[in-house]
Design brief:
374 residues, binds coenzyme A, Aminopeptidase, 7-stranded mixed β-sheet, 11 helices, alpha+beta, 8-stranded mixed β-sheet
């Protein structure tokens, strides 16, 4: 089995902190006059199409902190924090979502992202935030900094002609996308089904649904909703951006609704946390193609605040944090801050480290799944 502890131990041994640091570069919250430079850096790093107005709103209104690495007044790198509510161990708690991480190509591979992540985690630690989450461009990159993948998602693609049709399509009714507040309670209930699922705040709903060039279809059911951007359709495949079904009936009714699209599309694609709902309807003549893919990454930030969320004490462990922020002083079995999240939330069916079997899945038996992407 892939041993992240080994990666972390290796990092701690081979990479003294502050190594290769360009000491002329200082890390501080973004100065307001630097916003155009930051937007230019995001544009350069994340590629077109890029909307300047929404990037500016994002920096000013969505991020709670935008840390910047300055070379005098030049922006060399940035990393932001988004505040999220996260459902974990049967309750809502805070998490710091790391976002907008980018380094100007002239400053790459000088350790600036490492310094920014460390500063961001220190800020979260000082606020007693238990966890930090992110969606990576590379899983390995963030494993080096103590994050671990914390959920697995299923990408399901099915021929529309062979969708099971036991449900009732008319149980889904279109509502105007601007009335998205009508599905917020369903969205929250959906997040509460899982471990490590983040609630989409109202302003994030508005940002998502005002995406330039999108054409949204929002379908509401008594026990769920489907959100489709018709512009996402890809070579005859209808792509569902988000499908919340809180009952088997909501799932079956949704399949019946999708079957009505057979004159326009050949296939349908959606993401799910599980496959039981599909398989319990019997395998169709043309079975779905299902890809299992890694989801979000998580890690502990403040160990005591994290332990307070759990029903049993965290005993026998020593957290080893490659960024040094969350390392624990107690002696015990070495574990990375992301691995600890995996262990207590039962990410693996069996505990990856048998010596820590007493902590396996103590955060509850709900599957880990993150609804929100950012
Ligand atoms: C990814 C990116 C943020 C890295 O920034 P950086 O400041 O060069 O990163 P650092 O110098 O702090 O590198 C940290 C470590 O990652 C390694 N690394 C750097 N770039 C990497 C890459 N593209 N792929 C894999 N590893 C990489 C470094 O070698 C270093 O390893 P070490 O700790 O063993 O020395 C930068 O390349 C970038 O802005 N890319 C485009 C935007 C992007 O993808 N952002 C991330 C969104 S999640």
């Amino acid at each position: 089995m892939h041993n992240v502890s080994a990666i972390i131990k290796d990092k701690l041994r081979t990479m003294p902190r502050d190594m290769q640091e360009n000491t002329n570069i200082v890390i501080e919250p973004m100065r307001s006059e630097s916003l155009p430079q930051v937007i230019k850096l995001w544009d350069l790093s994340f590629g077109p199409p890029y909307n300047i107005q929404s990037a500016s709103d994002y920096a000013k209104k969505h991020l709670s902190l935008l840390l910047t690495a300055y070379d005098k007044d030049k922006v060399a790198a940035v990393a932001g924090i988004l505040d999220f509510d996260l459902h974990f161990a049967g309750q809502w708690t805070k998490t710091g979502g790391i976002a907008g991480v980018a380094t100007h190509p002239s400053y790459r591979r000088q350790g600036l992202t490492r310094r920014l992540l460390e500063a961001a985690l220190k800020e979260l630690y000082n606020n007693r935030v238990p966890l930090a989450t992110l969606w990576p461009f590379s899983y390995r990159f963030y494993e080096n900094f103590g994050w671990s993948v914390s959920d697995v998602q299923y990408k399901i693609e099915q021929n529309i002609a062979s969708l099971p049709q036991t449900g009732k399509a008319s149980n889904y009714q279109e509502i105007p996308a601007e009335n998205h507040s009508q599905v917020h309670a369903l969205h929250d209930a959906w997040c509460e089904k899982w471990n490590l699922s983040m609630r989409r705040a109202k302003k994030r709903w508005s940002m998502l649904l005002s995406k330039p060039g999108a054409s949204w279809l929002l379908l509401k059911h008594q026990a769920g909703y489907m959100l489709i951007n018709l512009r996402d359709a890809d070579q005859g495949t209808l792509i569902i951006r988000e499908w919340c079904y809180l009952s088997q009936e909501a799932f079956a009714d949704g399949l019946a609704w999708l079957a009505q699209m057979d004159s326009q599309f050949k296939k349908v694609r959606f993401l799910a946390a599980e496959t039981d709902s599909l398989f319990s309807m019997g395998i169709p003549h043309s079975p779905a193609e299902i890809i299992m893919q890694p989801g979000m990454m998580s890690r502990v930030v403040h160990p005591e605040a994290f332990a307070e969320l759990l029903p049993k004490p965290l005993s026998g462990i020593q957290i080893m944090d490659p960024l040094g922020v969350s390392s624990s002083k107690e002696k015990g079995e070495a574990i990375g801050p992301g691995e600890l999240v995996q262990l207590v939330s039962g990410f693996f069916k069996e505990p990856a480290n048998k010596k820590l079997a007493h902590l396996h899945a103590i955060a509850g038996m709900s599957k880990t799944f993150s609804v929100e992407k950012y």
